[in-house]
Amino acid sequence: MYFDSQIPSVLKPFTRHIVAVGDLHGDLPNALRVLKFSNVINDEGNWSGKVDFFVQTGDIIDRGDDTIKLFELMEKLREQAPSTGGVVLSHLGNHEWMNAIGDWRYVYPSEIKTFGTVEDRQRMISVGSIGSAWASNYTVASRLPLHPYLGLPNTPYPPVRSQLFVEPELDRLEPLETTHMHELDLENGPLSHAALSFVHGGLSPTYEALAPFPNRINDLGTSLLRKLQRREQPPPHPPYPYPGLPASATTEEHELYDANGPLWYRGWALEPEEKVCVDVEKVLNVTGTRRMIMGHTPDFHNIVSRCNGKIIIIDTGISHAYGGVLSALSIHYTFTPIVDPEHTGAKQRWSEREVVSALYEGHQKVVADEQREVVGDFAV
Predict the structure, then answer these.
(1) What is the average per-residue pLDDT within 33-40?
(2) Alpha carbon distance 21, 51 (integer Å)
(3) How far is 182 from 177, CA to CA, in rounded Å?
(4) Predicted confidence band of residue 330 (pLDDT cuts 50, 70, 90)
(5) How far is CA 191 from CA 53, 170, 378, in A?
(6) What domains can you pick out in the chain, each with its CATH number?
(7) Average pLDDT value for residue range 139-162
(8) CB under 8 Å to 163, separation ≥6 — which residues?
């Protein structure tokens, strides 16, 4: 039972609302419809202020003619969101990377005309406005804490601990300071995994560069994108030969882009339930998260939830190129103090609830509704 009138001023309920949308593939009208019914934008197409985080998991480009307009929309929302305390998190999908490489197999001739010429398009996605946005505002993966106690989006997991002073003669570390205790709690405490991972393809259980998450993956993405954008742009394939990654690309950068990497991996969608529900536990543990949310592998009927919502695949073929359903994922997180007047001075007790819903035009379906009690000093 909650006694609002007896909650100390420091113990206030906390809420966070997240909306995630999958592959858009060159279709602005359908994208606007999704963002409207999920309350990301208002009737005028501007940031509504009704969500805290809007996450897009990549593949905005290809298969349609609205590439420029879609990326302009994302940057407009990114600029507007902070006015209400909101944040836009954007990811590069395998199709953004294909275009950066020079693999234009899914680029419509009509879409090229919206840029002008092939050269104009190359310029815009390398050093022009779209390429600059990719380099500055897009990542390969994100870790989004549900509670601010865990830090800002993309705070690394495991946490980067302050370096402890070693006394060689005594062969021991200095005692942990308060800051170190907090860092340990961020890794192993009751809220340590109260976070979500977002990526385009999937975080494979055999992919080597998971930790620290998401920094290691994103550092590789930053390095590889820089090499692609700064090289002399090769003539696109087709009709010219496939250019591949730059000669300077490292082994880890090749692994980032291969079938087992976070841009292309499809195992969470295609492997049997008994396998993925075992494998997912390792990845959630390494990344410090509760759920993995990704696009890339479409189901044209609904958002796919596996293993009680630990794996959620949100690509439903939104673009008219696929003819799938319009959809978005909504996560409502609440963290409410439980006040028991008979136990004044006891440890803080909180009710944590996370409701995950698949949103469609005209209806929605609850994917997960989980609640638990948490004990600890997590006042915000």
Answers:
(1) 98
(2) 13
(3) 9
(4) very high
(5) 19, 35, 9
(6) 4-162+195-375 (3.60.21.10)
(7) 92
(8) none
Cα(150)–Cα(155) distance, rounded to whole angstroms? 8
Percentage of residues in the chain with pLDDT exceeding 70? Answer: 90
State which amino acid sits at residue 204.
Answer: S
In 3-state terms, what secondary structure has residue 309? coil
pTM: 0.92
Nearest of 119, 105, 29 to residue 69 by alpha carbon? 29
Altogether, the residues listed in the chain come to a count of 380
The predicted model gives 47-66 an average pLDDT of 98
Show Cβ contacts of residue 228 under 8 Å, excluding neighbours closer than 6 positions. Answer: 100, 101, 126, 245, 246
pLDDT digits (tens, 9 = 90+) for 268-309: 999 999 999 999 999 999 999 999 999 999 999 999 999 999
Extract the tokens encoding 43.
């009737």
What is the distance, to the nearest Å, from the Cα of residue 68 to the centroid of all Cα atoms in its chain? 22
Q: Name the percent of the chain lying above pLDDT 90.
A: 84
Count CB atoms within 10 A of the CB of residue 97.
26
Terminal C-alpha separation, the chain: 21
pLDDT tens-digit map of 188-204: 899 999 999 999 999 99
Task: Look at residue 267 and tell me whether its pLDDT is greater than 70.
Answer: yes
Sign of CA dihedral 273, 274, 276, 282: positive
What is the distance between the alpha carbons of residues 362 and 327, in angstroms, rounded to a whole number? 10
CA 285/CA 292 separation, integer angstroms: 11
Token readout for 32 is: 């606007």
User: Which helix or strand (DSSP H or E) is residue 183 part of?
Assistant: helix 178-188
Alpha-carbon gap, residue 115 to 131, rounded angstroms: 13
User: Strand 53-56 vs strand 349-360: parallel, antiparallel, or unpaired?
Assistant: unpaired
